[in-house]
TrEMBL record:
Annotated InterPro entries: Chromosome_partition/occlusion (IPR050336), DUF5131 (IPR011101), ParB/Sulfiredoxin_sf (IPR036086), ParB_N (IPR003115)
SMART domains assigned to the protein according to its UniProt record, in alphabetical order: ParB
Top-level lineage group: Bacteria
Classification via SUPFAM superfamilies: ParB/Sulfiredoxin
GO terms of biological process kind: chromosome segregation
Lineage: Bacteria, Pseudomonadati, Acidobacteriota, Terriglobia, Terriglobales
Cellular-component GO terms for this entry: chromosome
Organism: Tunturiibacter gelidiferens
One Pfam family here: ParB_N
This protein's name: ParB/RepB/Spo0J family partition protein
Amino acid sequence: MTDQPVLLALTELKPHPNNPRVVKRDDVIDAIAKQLQAGGFDTRHAITVRPVNGHYQIVSGHNRTEAAGLAGFQSIPAWVRDMDDEAAFMELILSNAQGELSPLERGIHALGATEKGKHNGRSISAYAEQVGRPEKSVNNEVLAARVASSPLMAKLAELTDKCTHLSTIHAAPETCWPPLVKRMIGESWTVAQTSEAVAAVRSLKAPRGYEKLFPLATLQTMLAEGENIDEITTKLIRTIERCRADLRDGFAGKDYLAQFESWLAEHGPWDSVAVYAHREELLSAQTKAQQEAEHKASKLKRAVTLAEWNSLSKSEQKLLLNTRNDKAKLNKQDGTSIEWARWSWNPITGCLHNCPYCYARDIAERFYTQKFEPSIVPTALSAPLNGVPPKEAAIDLGWKNIFTCSMADLFGNWVPSEWIETVFSIMRETPEWNFLLLTKFPQRLKEFTFPENAWPGTSIDLQARVPAAEKAMREADATVKWVSIEPFIEPITLDFSIFQWVVIGGASSSSQTPEWKPPRKWVLDMTSQAMTAGCAVYHKDNLNLARLRDYPGFAESEPAVAPSPFHYLKARVVEVASTQP
């Protein structure tokens, strides 16, 4: 440190690297140079320096030093002071307090002084107090400097008089600073216009439901660049939804739609041409896959075993379930074994219960290619669609009833739910028919919502089946619920209040069991219990008694009152009474 200024060669002097001046003031330097040429360099105007690594770093007097060089001076007077980096940095602003630093230049210095890790990172409040300026003003200048100093920013020289604009832009997301500054300069925005642009960016929201495809940060940057976000996103969303609809409605729509969504997530929705091109690729693949599946399905439509079904893709399975055959017909029942339903329909065949008296197994083993293995018959699915109940149904409900899956247990725990729901869908399309269903596994009935014209029933042959059957049938939600006591192997006690209809029968002979007709007393007792509970009762023709053949809500036609000639006693009493005095 010197007590008096000393002459230092200009070659020994170097500017401070953190000089806050952004722009070289040529007019100021020229004026100082002329003064120096006219009157010399008075020691009163000596610059301030500090020794650093063999040279002198200018702390105050950068313009005077440049002017001296311009005026032809080789050396100038300087105060030499020992300062640490912190003191030298603060002197840059303190010595320039009257030196016409712009607000942005002051902000650049304040930013450097208050950043963590630099110059002790003091608070803005402490800095403002040290330099003797209002904290609010210093804070706004720091915000402006932070925007001006960000990467990809315009040249600082263009921003020296835009401190208020820049501090306003600071409120926008940082990625939006460069495009906002560029437009602010290029379009000569006022502070009010700048504030409006920032408010628009901050209030922007991604289209509802499309937030992942249109990241908000990307949209904000686009808006900051001047793009019309509503117009752009509306067009892109229209493109996306068209593509989604095309793929969703096609073969294996869910799978191909998932591929489309994956591509969108990876590549984004911004290039409509690319989006449409990828849709075309997927549609082409979709068409090819459908053709291959149809070829494969054409070989399976007669009967598809459960094992074959499980080997198919979901799309191939769906294709089979949608099979429609206008030649499919219901099976007319000419015999009396199931005359309570004059028609049978077997879109599903096969059973795994292995009951010894099963007549269906004997038939299947003899006539079906798939034997009694659980199978779906796609070509039979549309049979109820191809006919209507005959006129006889008006007086005999049996002609309206279809025994559904007489060669299977539709609710066996091995039956895929897709098979069951497909059968139900056909029922819903044909409300003119009643569909009678019978299962030995009623526990599964509660899994489904039955069509109004479906009558679910359960088979009970032994008392051991009763508890599970009662519980399951109580839980089943159907308009008509029924029970088939067949074959009636032992006396059975049952809560008939659960049911609307009871069918009672013996057993025809099968390959494993003889013919069986239950004792009359069993049948009469069972019939009495059922009728007392309000059930309609139907006796099959393999019983040892005169038959009842009632249906729920459709009893056999019999008079409730005897014809009038039989009421002779009442008529005679009236006649006698009239002759008495």
